[in-house]
Design brief:
With 184 residues, this protein is of the alpha+beta class. 53% of the residues lie in helices and 21% in strands. α2 packs antiparallel against α5 (97-143), α3 runs antiparallel to α5 (97-143) and α4 (84-90) packs across α5.
C-alpha cells in the first residue's frame, strides 16, 4: 500500500529524515488497509488539488502553440535541407557553394531537432501534471469525494495572469472553495 498518496494530502502528515513518513496523531508510520480513518483533508488537500488542476489546464492551453511551432520548425527544417542546393546557388560566390549548402543543411537539421525537443518537453510536462492529478483523484475516489472544477482565466497583464479556481465538492465537509492564483 502506498501511504504517501494518502498522507501527502492529510494535515496530520509529518516527514523527517530520521523517521520518514509518520502520522502526527500516533507518531508512528501509517498503518491502514484501504483508507485511513483519521485522515484530515483540509487546506493542504484543497491547495494541492487546485494546483494540480491549474497546472494541467495551463499546459493544455499551450498545446496549440507547441504543435504550431513543432510543425513550423519541421517544415522549415525540411525545406532548408531539400532546397539547400538552390539556396546555395543563389549566393554570390560559387567558391563557397558547399559551405552554404552544408550550413543550410545544418540549420535545417537543427530546426528539426529543436522541434522534436519542444514536443518531447511538452509531452513530459503534460504527463507529469496528469499523473499528479490522477494520484490525488485516486485517493479522493477511495474516500468518496467528488468535485466539479471551474477555472476562470482572466486577461494577461504584463505577463501575469490571474486565475480563479472554483471547486464544488460532494461528500465532503466543505461544499465550495474559491481561490485566486497569479501565474506567469
Amino acid at each position: 500500500m502506498n501511504f504517501s498518496k494518502h498522507c501527502d494530502l492529510c494535515e496530520n502528515e509529518i516527514t523527517s529524515l530520521e523517521k520518514g513518513l509518520t502520522c502526527k496523531l500516533t507518531n508512528k508510520k501509517p498503518e491502514f488497509k484501504n483508507t485511513c480513518p483519521e485522515i484530515k483533508l483540509d487546506n493542504k488537500f484543497v491547495k494541492k488539488l487546485e494546483i494540480a488542476n491549474l497546472e494541467l489546464e495551463t499546459i493544455k492551453k499551450k498545446k496549440n502553440t507547441i504543435l504550431f511551432s513543432f510543425f513550423f520548425l519541421i517544415i522549415v527544417g525540411f525545406l532548408l535541407i531539400y532546397k539547400s542546393s538552390a539556396f546555395a546557388k543563389m549566393m554570390l560566390s560559387p567558391i563557397y557553394f558547399w559551405y552554404y549548402k552544408v550550413g543550410l543543411i545544418s540549420v535545417g537539421v537543427s530546426n528539426i531537432i529543436v522541434a522534436c525537443f519542444k514536443l518531447r518537453a511538452f509531452k513530459g510536462e503534460f504527463g507529469t501534471a496528469r499523473h499528479k492529478k490522477n494520484n490525488i483523484e485516486e485517493v479522493l475516489e477511495k474516500y468518496g469525494i467528488c468535485y466539479e472544477l471551474k477555472l476562470d482565466f482572466k486577461e494577461k497583464i504584463h505577463g501575469i495572469q490571474e486565475v480563479i479556481v472554483k471547486m464544488n465538492f460532494k461528500n465532503w465537509k466543505k461544499k465550495q472553495t474559491e481561490t485566486t492564483y497569479k501565474i506567469s
